[in-house]
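User: Hey, my collaborator sent me this sequence without any context and asked if I could get a structure. I don't really work with proteins. Can you help?
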Amino acid sequence: MTSIAIPTPHSDTLPTARRHIARRHLAGLILVLLVAAFARMSDLGRLTDYAYDQATLSTLALDLVNGKSIPTLGIQSSAGIPNSPMTVYVLAIPYLFTDDPQVVTMIIAAFNVFGVGLLWYLGYRYFGPRIALLAALAYALHPHAIHYSRSIWAQDYHTPILLLALLAALEGYLEGKRWGQIAMLPLFLIGAQIHYAAWTLLPALLWIVLRGRQQIDWRATGLGILIGIATLVPFAVGLSQATDAASATALDVVDRLDSLILRNKALLYLARLMTGLGGPWVGMPLIGAYDVVLEFPSAITLLWLVPAAFMALGQVISPRRRGWFWAVLFGLWVFLPFAIFLPNWTGVYPHYFIPNLPLMALLAAVGLDWLLERLAPRAALRIALMGVFGIAVLTQGWAYLRFLQNIDNVLPELQPTPVHYLMSVRDALKPYDDVLIAGGTTGESGQPVWKALLYNSAECVRELVIASGGIAVFPEGPFALLTAPNALPPATGDLYESENSTTYPLRPGEGSYTITPFDNAPEWNGPEMQPVHLARFDNGVELTGYHLEENRIYLQWKLPGQGERAYQYFAHFLDSAGEKIGQQDASFYPEYFWCAGDTIITWIEADVPTETVTLRVGMYTLENDRFVNSQLVDDAGNPTLPWADITLSAPDSSE
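Assistant: No problem. I've predicted the 3D structure and written it out in structure-token form, which is a compact way to encode the shape of the chain:
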């Protein structure tokens, strides 16, 4: 018999016994891991989401891997609070080996399969082989656990890290192992920085430390604290450099503390996660219908109440059956986080509670095991009970896999395009170093998504979008125009129309992407632009032309490489005495769309006085709520004037 000696604590006492892992128990673990892997990885990552969050995180990770930048902040959280850069640092690990989001998704899914193994190990070490197997199986097939373990999304890859922190705490402070006392806090802080809602699990770890205080090795614990603090340094630097907008968002969250009220969302999510219901796999949109607790589109999902009942039973019987240490730990890990989010101090979403799922599954196994022990004389009832539990968890996994199959061909509400459709478009775009996007949306089909997907093939990816007015973009060399599905007609009219286009259909009703190649930029088909000379601003942008109409102003610009800050531009209309008789301000082309050598033409509606003899054009940005002009510079780069004055022909006095 193959065996590995490990200690098992008895109830509330410190560990005094050893339990061996038998070969048959290892076989059970392997079977559960195969089930977990099939549920998470059978589609090879083809059916996962890839929208704004996934793409932005991917770009930051690729920038880090390629030495372009070391981020000190992640992307904004759903609550509007800046995330730690740890979300990027951990994600950079798979991006060291590939830029394919499907492969990265599979690495994340495999890490979560490892998390199923961690739960089995925890259950085996402290509760026994039957509870370990039941808990791991329930967790492996829980639809929410599957759903939030197979995407390039922060909360999809932090749960195994938090489970490692829990195991380190148990072995460190219950069993006195130095490695656990060193590792617990750094592991927890890494996981909590990946998604801030994980901070609600800290009381559970502190309870373990309190319970095992006689086992504390202060040198090991102190070293763990120092390493933990070190993991926070980049985030602290990022927060200290945060923009005013980010600071205002954080202050807004604090201000809401003055008017706290209780709400039921967290309790609704508790019911959903305990049952596996409330997700798109049972016909309900994942986002939107927050006021609906459960839906039963088929009779089979009624069985999903069975694991939830065992969870409740496990919590009730834990004090007497497992001891108060475990009862309190379950309460702090499983239920306290939902209570913390009952007040409206910040937004709350189902994915905040993904780390609760492993111990929910363990609680269900504890409750079922207690019943099985009491039914020992009644073999038929034991078999029936096990059968009901098995069918319940198997149908949960089956429902999720069926959901995945459906979203590949059906357009469900609020379910983004599966990534494999985008990969076909990416492959077609790989020959092009320069890509211009028409009709994309920031969330799903716009520049952030394609910047990440084309990271290693296209030097420049930008959109035909501007906050006000219109824009035409003329790349310096060959480029491909990517038209997003269901794109609205561009403000440029037929400027980019061509018969040399290829379409790439998506799901029925979702439209298609269109790729149109250009050997050269098309000729401007609008009004003739009058040239402007020697009008280069210190941000690298050049004003090269203009055209005035009675109610519209066109300006032609040449762009440097990507800018560092957002700019506005202004047009002042001056009379013969040099007095300003009108003006128009507008947002300039976003700085993250600037590509070296691009010529752009912007236009904006404006009332142009007939007495105008001078057009004054400038650019400015906001710094600490004050306007700062971008200066004109000479050939040597020395500042000259804060704007460009263009003399027009004098108005006809006879009119």
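In plain terms: The two ends are 106 Å apart (CA to CA). You can pass these tokens on to your collaborator as they are.
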